[in-house]
Amino acid sequence: MIYRCPICEQPLMLQSKTWFCDSNHRFDCAKEGYVNLLPVQKKKSSDPGDNKEMMFARREFLNKGYYQQLSDSVNQLAKTHLNDAKYGLDIGCGEGYYSNRLAHGLGENFTLFGLDISKSALKYAAKRYPDIAFSVASAFDMPFADDSFDFMLRIYAPSLDTELKRVIKSGGILITVCAGPRHHFALKELIYETPKEHTQESSQIEGFTLIDQKRLESTLSLKDEDDIGHFLQMTPYNWKLTDEQKLALAASGFECELDFKIEVFSAN
What are phi and psi of 179, to 5 degrees? Predict the structure, then answer.
């Protein structure tokens, strides 16, 4: 079994909607279908991860299809590089938008797991996408056995290189997405006197070899007030914009750059 106990690291077994190990550490599946594998003693706050408001904003924005081009590009790269992959993991899966589209794209013989530290996000994800195995856990201490996955996806989520290497099989494929040089630059120009571009340099992940990369650039044009509000709330710049700036953007609409750096790695 892929899951391992987050307390003692023994394999977890499932019985009557409860995961348990030989030491009798027990983790019940929530009514929505996910399992919480983040013990209280490993939490750094009472409700870690994105809150309900942030999750709702991202969910509404993504469901409008504004980032579908990114999802399509990731899925195409996965199809290009995966050979008979059976088990995949979406790290920092959030409300499951990318997870669901990936699972459908890779077909019936592919089983996808989703991991996120936000219980609010996974309540929605598990209820809407019951075919994906979602768990609440930290990407820095993943509740999976060694060499579990043929494929992993990480979109913006922070993680440890050692954990990525531990849970992926040798030769497994990891696709990562991070901000390209001009990503959301128009927003940064509103906030900073001398905004800086993100790096163009390729990422380095210990234990992995970069085998493919793609830069995906487009322009995001928003006119609907609700869509603008949801977009701002899901970005890190939301905390830096003044209320006056937010109101002005919502009233007039705006355009900004989308610039994604997509990289494909093979596990050594």
Answer: -75, 130
